[in-house]
Amino acid sequence: MAKQKKIDEKRNKTLTYHKVKITCACGAEYDSGSTKEEIHVDICANCHPFYTGESRLVDTEGRVERFKKKYKLK
Ligand SMILES: [Zn+2]
Fold first, then answer.
1. pTM given for the model
2. Domain containing 10: what range?
């Protein structure tokens, strides 16, 4: 019984909304609110392709493909 009570207490604590530090794989840290104590993400606004401009490289590749098709290059 005592063990079950401890688990319930832990669960209640975990579900409490509090300040959390989000740590990204790139090293960026953000403060946010969550029921989790810590959040680790692989991508964030600091390193996401949309923000770094890598999406433009994808667009350039598309243009190269159209160029190749137009001149029937392989
Ligand atoms: Zn990041």
1. 0.42
2. 2-70
